[in-house]
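Blinded run. Sample ID left blank on purpose so nobody reads anything into the name before looking at the predicted structure. Input follows.
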Amino acid sequence: MRNLFYAMVSVSLLSFTLFSVVKSNAKEVTSDKLQVTSYPYQIIENKADGQNQTISGQSDSIEAAKIITDLQLDYYQEDRIKIFPDPSLGIGATLTLDRAPVYFLKDGKRSKEYRSWTKTVAELFKEKNIELGADDKVGPSLESQIFNGSQIAITRVAITNVVEAKPIDFTIQEKEDPNLDYGKKRVDAGVKGEKKLTYRVTREDGEEVSRILLATEITKQPKTQINYTGTKVTILSSVRGRATIYDRSNCLIVSVNYKRGTLIRITNLDSGVKVFGTVDCTWGTAKPDDLSVLLDLSRSVLSSLKWNGRGAGPSILVEEIKQ
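Blinded prediction complete.
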């Protein structure tokens, strides 16, 4: 019984001693509704770049994350934390905070930083669930060692087929129409076609870097446009006479017997050459009552008629043509 008594006395003395230590280090903060006790803490921060510092302060928490933020430091879940003694004793503690290395990742056009104790790019990607496409590019390589401050870049490569529709221009043909009055025009309008082009497009970080044509399919054939010119000659009147040279103005065919704009066919009776033209002037050496001189012609028109240059001008047949 005497031994049991001494044991009970020893426990009571130990409890009183611990209570005294707590009371001497803790601070009590009293408000209207509750009483809060804060405890003294010391944080030894070991940074990933080798620098370190020691911070002291108070916190009412026994949780490491809260203690760290209460002492005005950033808390990262990847950091390694050692605490002694156990904060639950209520006497304060010392926290050793080993900061995790920081890696900087440029993923396409986005930049992000990661904290991790992994040693290679592949380990980091696995830990952070960073997925790579089959064609994505990584620099440095997945097997590369990484250290605090390492820069890693992912080039996102997307390969897909792109289909584009493009118009096909129609061609134009010129044709004669024997059923259309000479010189008149008629158009059978053309219609554009359409083709489908299939490309294999490669994009890196959203920017197109290559495009390869895989196939071309014509989905709509173009329709050719045909411009018809009338060749049907309907003679309204005809007269024989001769032509003279006239090169004192810009007029090509001068006549006082036909109105300006009249379509005529001129035949050189010596060579048989025929030329179609339009009267553009109504004055000159020809006279209405003198059929011997029918037209005054420029040298260019006479050249087209294959005039041999003899005399004042060629003998001609003039025919008025229906328009």
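Unblinding after everyone has recorded impressions. The first strand starts at residue 27 and ends at 30.
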